[in-house]
Amino acid sequence: MHYYSHSNPDLTSSFGEALLSSLAPDGGLYMPSEIPSFTLDEMAKLGALPFHACAAKLARHFVDDRFSDEDLERICEDAYNFPVPMVTADGYVLDPALNEPRNDFFLELFHGPTLAFKDFAARFMGRSVSHLSGENDTRTILVATSGDTGGAIGYSFLNQPGTRVFILYPEGGVSAIQEQQLTTMGKRSNVRALRVTGSFDDCQALVKAAFADKDLTAQHNLMSANSINVGRVVPQSFYYFWTALQARAAYPQRPLVFSIPSGNLGNLTGGLIAKKMGAPIDRFVVGHNANDPFIDYLRSGEYTPRPSVPTLSNAMDIGRPNNFPRILELFDGDIKALRKAVWGASFTDEQTMRHMRRYYNETGYAMCPHTTIGHLAAQAFREDVDIDFTQITVATAHPAKFHSEVERIIHDDIAMPNALKKLKKKTPYITEMKPELAALSDMLSGKA
User: Are 247 and 343 in the same domain?
Assistant: First the structure.
């Protein structure tokens, strides 16, 4: 397996080189040169494994020979030491052995240390970087976050030798708990949070500009931990592959549809890679908020990125999604083939709040704003098609990460996990920064 630039297939690298360099030399996004496929017998064996063991087997096909099978088993067992449940609103956990007749599941990806799905990719990435780094290497990791990515990356690299982490997040663009998570890793730790006086698009543009500056990149040995890095996207295919096998084993006669709340399209890209590996996924549904250029593209065939606007589902406030070129590459630019695999819709804050409140009143299940949009999209898709299917909504964050907003909407208290109770007692350390490359350069050089 090698990786190539989506804008120039002649520019290639190994997995390790692609991971550590983040972008190809021409600024293109790295893509795997081939997608592995598996026989039915092989998939049955993979589905019978615990998740971390299945992830290690899948990773073998994407990494290079600097990772042994034993390395991958160790990395995945350490990274994925938390559950990956598919549950119904009344608490039933999907079990292929029971085969209970249910069709509305939530894939809860928020049981990791930062209570968000970003833990899956961040923890694999952090351990892979540590595995590849030499004793005298010092690497500066840049990450722009609209909510959960920064916390997951920060915790994954916290106090790891040979690394410095700078997290750029938009002022007023993350929840209070998300900001607390970003800014309480210690004043003298290797992780520094920078509150940018701008939007998430400004943060993301700064990261890209830093990598476009070859002198700055070389001076600080820069690495991106955003989903421009293929090392963030590949691990997201692992949970789709494994959970699809579990769901198909439980409900072999029904089509399987995953519904994803989407912003930067990295989660969808991981799912599409899993589908191309042979995961028994019939369709993906994507739900967007008002920042929906990808939905426009699915409908019209015209892609027009635009400035982001703030919404209740802040982690999806992205007007120029990073992974759009990767999705085009996976389908060779064939929009008809993409439409067969992906259906999408977008929703307003008012629709999101109304659905969150109604579903909680009917079932007692609380969703974060992002998960709510995913569930709304799944219901809209169900109304649009005349088939029965197993519906799995990807629950991307614990609702307590947005407890003020969620409690205001559902008119009820939600339980606060112990990790967040402890977090609220920590002292934040915040540095403000203008959305300018010169300001970022000063931060990296220790001048500010």
Answer: yes
214 Cβ contact list (under 8 Å, min separation 6): none
Cα(131)–Cα(137) distance, rounded to whole angstroms?
12
The length of the chain is 448
User: CATH number, domain at 394?
Assistant: 3.40.50.1100
**Are 188 and 278 found together in one domain?**
no
- For 388-407, the DSSP string reads --EEEEEE-B-GGGGHHHHH
| Phi and psi torsions of 291, nearest 5° | -90, 85
In sequence order, the β-bridge partners of residue 394 are 107
Domain boundaries, position 137: 115-226+416-448
Q: How far is CA 271 from the centre of its chain?
A: 11
Kindly state whether residues 136 and 210 are assigned to the same domain. yes
Angle between helices 51-59 and 69-79 in degrees, nearest 10: 140
Per the structure, the count of domains in the chain is 4
d(CA 37, CA 264): 26
CA atoms within 13 A on the CB side of 377: 32
Q: What is the pLDDT of residues 237-262, one digit of tens each?
A: 999 999 999 999 999 999 999 999 99
Question: What's this model's pTM, rounded to 2 decimal places?
Answer: 0.92
Q: Is there a single domain that holds both residue 253 and residue 292?
A: yes
Q: What is the pLDDT of residues 362-372, one digit of tens each?
A: 999 999 999 99
- Domain identity same for 252 and 397: yes
Cβ atoms within 10 Å of 337's Cβ, excluding its own: 12
